[in-house]
């Protein structure tokens, strides 16, 4: 018997399993149509995007607020800069005052800046006087609004009578001819005596006496340059009338004073501590020159300090 080749009945098997009835074929067609419709629908949806409603009111509001904040910050910066450079202080204390030789600190309380006060002092140094209230507003640093705010507090008349004006002119001429300045001893003069010198008002007189007390006395008239209120132009005016006697100088004892007692314009707190600690470790100082030899102070600073220190009384 002849053997049949493998898979000889494959065709018959395929026909058997791929033969559909009329109902099955109809169902396949309907299913195919549904599949095609679905695919076309999905494909068409890619080209159709419904409009999305976006509410931009909040975004617009946020942007407007941000712009407002930016503008405010610029205004604040500009206002701060203007306040620092030109405008008076915001905190003011009004009080009755005579503007002639008024202390710097009192002008500050009234609301003027350092630059404005310096301009007023230059006016006074050149011989300027305030005789009536309106003389104050003649200075370019005095704004109309500032003058209006202090007008009622100025202790000067609104005007000078004719006879007073003539008398003032006569007195001015007489003062120029007869006025002489007596020299003063800078280590003994009080504030009232200092004010008799040209360009020295109550403020500068108080500053000089205060610094003299901190030093323990002046050793030279040139030390007046160390007083903040004494500028070169003022020193030139008063130097011909100054005498200096160094006998009343108060001195610091570097062998007995503690760090607190050694405080001085020429001795910093750190230097005072070093002086005391070295003394505790090595014993009393033999001479004041030891400070210079220890090189804990610059030679030029030691020369300034030397007259104010001792090792024993």
Tell me the strand order in the biggest sheet. Answer: 1-2
What is the molecular shape? elongated
> Approximately how much beta-strand content do the residues carry?
under 5%
Uncertain runs are 74-89, 174-178
Helix count equals 13
Per DSSP E runs of 2 or more residues, the count of β-strands stands at: 4
Radius of gyration: 48 Å
Structure description:
The protein is mostly helical. Among the domains are: 89-160, no CATH class; 184-243, Photosystem II 12 kDa extrinsic protein (DNA polymerase, domain 1, Orthogonal Bundle); 252-310, DNA polymerase, domain 1. It is 50% helix and 3% strand. It has helices spanning 10-17, 22-45, 57-85, 104-110, 114-125, 144-150, 162-178, 191-194, 202-215, 232-238, 269-282, 289-293, 299-305, and strands spanning 184-185, 242-243, 252-253, 309-310. The strands form two sheets. Strands 1-2 form a two-stranded parallel ribbon. A two-stranded parallel ribbon has the order 3-4. The protein is elongated and about 145 Å long. Mean pLDDT is 80; it is low at 74-89 and 174-178.
Keywords, please?
3% strand; DNA polymerase, domain 1; 313 residues; two-stranded parallel sheet
Short overview:
The chain is elongated.
Question: How do the helices and strands line up, and which of them pair or pack?
Answer:
Elements: H1 10-17, H2 22-45, H3 57-85, H4 104-110, H5 114-125, H6 144-150, H7 162-178, E1 184-185, H8 191-194, H9 202-215, H10 232-238, E2 242-243, E3 252-253, H11 269-282, H12 289-293, H13 299-305, E4 309-310
Parallel strand pairs: 1-2, 3-4
